[in-house]
Design goal:
The chain has 408 residues and is α/β, with parallel strands linked by helices. The chain has 13 helices and 19 strands.
Length: 408
Amino acid sequence: MSQTRTAARAHIPGDDRFGRLARATAGLEPPFAVVDLDAYRANARSLVRRSLGKPIRVASKSLRCRHLLADTLRGDGFRGVLAFTLPEALWLAEDHTDVVVGYPTTDRAALRRLATDQRLRERVTLMVDSPEQLEFLHGAARPDPARPLRICLELDASYRLLGGRVHLGARRSPVHSPGQALALARRIADRPGLRLVGMMAYESQIAGVGDAPAAALRGLAVRMMQRASAAELRERRATAVAAVRSVADLEFVNGGGTGSVEGTAAEPAVTEVAAGSGLYGPLLFDTYRAFRPRPAAFFALPVVRRPAPGIVTVLGGGWPASGAAGQDRLPRPAHPGRLAYRATEGAGEVQTPLLGPAADGLALGERVWFRHAKAGELAERVNSFHLVEGDRIVEEVPTYRGEGHAFL
């Protein structure tokens, strides 16, 4: 079937998104990925409104595309990058002046390069959460006391109950109490060659957990937990920040994520919020009540087989998201509607059977559009994004992978 017919079928009343994407990409052979700039920019404006006037530090792992990262940072309300590895941060710091590495590093070669390059040293901030990491950084980088490395202290934002026996949230920093934060801040201040400039706390149990899942009772439980956790963290974070500020003149206090932007930004102790996934609007953000980003990133796969009535097979498709394995980590067919995986096959490495009423209307060569479960991980599967405005491609830009980088 011709690509013209594909586009016509996708142009359905009430939802012209896939009609626009089909017309824009009629000359492309799938598989490929697109970013709908109209939706992307609407999501950026939404994040800025939710941030209550505080700057948004863009999480690079949620984009993994230098062009889109730079374009976003040129917009009002965005300032600085939250990188995921030190080699990536050094690469990005060639163009950006404020890059915080969101996770600790043990990359000796990258640390030595950072310590010996004045421009990079002034632009990149390292993350620490223990005296052991301080020892490692000092031994690996051997920083000059007159030219110290910039350091950010990470406070654990998890919600703990029953004396810590119940832990809700990601297992990140061991620094949980204000006293622990103060003790580590003093260790950093006493270490020649290191300068404490920031604090960070990521409340994954709030920012990364949707409060409106399909199961109503579970949703109620999640909302109760998140309200209690937010109240506890607000007080603990303020106390910890005040304690650390008694030791160091902090330039920034970072918190939150796409799912908690407005709540975190409302805390007086927080000076900036982190976000990135909300720009692409992946599947995992379909279960939030307070906001709903517009889906902006899609990938298209071609129909290559018709094994039986009611079934079509597309090329590839096995692009699951990281995290605990489950159905919520799989890409989802977005168009045509009423397509689903076979329970015994799921999303396959080189082919994916899809079942449903729409299958019999698809011919060989036609496309099925998918959404990825998480944001930036889609960029690890393609070399470029086709940027679409309206019903035309305005630019093709490389992903990290397309520029020859696989940082993690």
